[in-house]
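Minutes, project check-in

Agenda point 3 was the complex the collaborators sent over. CS summarized: two entities, 614 residues total, and the question is how they sit relative to each other. Sequences were read into the notes so everyone works from the same version.
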Amino acid sequence: MPFTELEHTADILVRVNASSIEHLFAEAARAMFSFMHEQRKGGPVARTLTLEAADMDTLLHDFLSELLYAAEVDNLVFSDVDVSISGSTLAATAYGEPFDPDVHAEGAEIKGVSYYGLQIRKTEQDNHYRVDILFDV
Amino acid sequence: MLESLRKLGGVEWEIPIGYTPNMNVPGKFFLSDRLAAEVEEGAIQQLANVATMPGIVNYALAMPDIHWGYGFPIGGVAAFSPDHGVVSPGGVGFDINCGVRLIATPLREEEVDNRRELIERLFRAVPTGVGARSPQKLSIAEVKNLLVEGASWPVEHGFGMDADLHHCEQEGRMEEADTAHVSEKAIQRGVPQCGTLGSGNHFLEIQVAREIVDKDAAAIYGIAEGQICMMIHCGSRGLGHQVCTDHLKTLEQAMKKYRIDLPDRQLACAPLHSSEGEAYFSAMAAAANYAWANRQMIMHNARTVVADLYGVDYGEMNLIYDVAHNVAKFEEHLVDGRRVELCVHRKGATRAFGPDRPEVPQAYRATGQPVIIPGSMGTSSYLLKGTQIAMEKSFGSTCHGAGRVLSRSRAKKQFRGSTLKQELEQKHIVIRAASNAVIAEEAPGAYKPSDEVVRVVDAAGLSRVVARLEPLGVIKG
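CS then shared the predicted structure for the full assembly.
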């Protein structure tokens, strides 16, 4: 499983696992998309973004926050994303479709990406990357 | 229950300095034995983390609806001294000035026999749920004005009455608001959403005042048994969320500059009178103003529906009060016998000022401030009054709601939205929601009983019950 939901009473807490840092970022975004809208068909609309941050934890936080912003102001429902990271810079393209209330109404409005416990770690047993992310809903 | 949670007596509990390293003050909880047995370790740790913040005064406080959040626990209150204290978005949350307002209509329960039609009309009049946009098309310039003017902006533009403003906490406007510190991104998010409810636990409910506990206070607040009321619960929408996201970033940088080291990044903060602290405070105040304007516009649309459907005069639907439960504000409090101005953060907690405070509207001043505690879906909500004891024990604060005990995903596994809807309808509660999933997530079984939480604040004297309201119909996002 690329991500699992952990128990948190008030909000949504997910644990994301991936074999590379790029995959970790992409899986974290896909996890977020899956909570935002339960039904998604995917689509041809693409949004690109470039971000820079002092460390990977902040870069992940900013990346997810930026996707939340883009989805809301452009009225888009994202389903997938490509991520590349070079040094402290991220370039990503998110793919989706225009919001349609008949299709996309079921889901959670994510208010923000919390820094609480957000720390990317490398697991010793399989050399994978892991992070827990708390979304405020 | 954690061994280190020590009972002081009655409903008061404490974790001592030393529970976690670098605590400046103890943590104090208001809990019944039952609630103390259920409180999450994560929530206690978060309150202990708050106690490590610079300039915190007396205690880090937890209301009985405390639960595990991020930064502050939900139900957390902390006051900071102006000299050494800090301001933190972690003590306010993403949904700045999430709050509740209660409106009394002149209708009696027996007059509202077509609830389904009423709820359906409200659902059409108030944009609700994920992706909903307001029918009022505001320009960027109008949103900027509204960020400064708060609830008075919609009132001046025909969405309410002057009297409404006097019955809002802070008269629906924080004067510290400055749009210079609100990003373009935040404003863009605010443009299409003013007058929308949002999703999750936000709602608009039709209620009946089922039980009057304090007749004198009820008469002063203008509520009588059998009276139909409306309750609106929502906040500052995407604009507030963006303000929090933006300023967390700048305050994190500021922590390094001011050499503040805290155990949770979400507690990012800066000295109250630093440029970074003031920038956040003024942006937070602007977002709080947006939330008051948002609830004002929703109330206007709801009043219009009731006026059309029942022939009620718009002016006869009085706003009893509007409270914020996610906000930081400067307030005067007595500390060691001296009157000092503190910055009080309430995250999932409600101001509950007692009698004679100048902030309480003239008509209510002898009684104390009305406090509105929404129940979970299908359960009772409460109207209470603030007390002098709250001024002495909790910086004039009380609880804000029921508090979750089950995660949303567990609630969805345990409950079915369609079944819950039927069960509620058997109790003659009509529900209209954007999806069945949100009904399951917000199942009453996923929350602590609001009765217990209210009983504890009443027993502690932090606020006193005036009336109990039961739901008749609800719209949810």
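Noted in discussion: Residues 33 and 111 of chain A are 13 Å apart (CA to CA).
Follow-up: revisit at the next meeting once the mutant set is ready.
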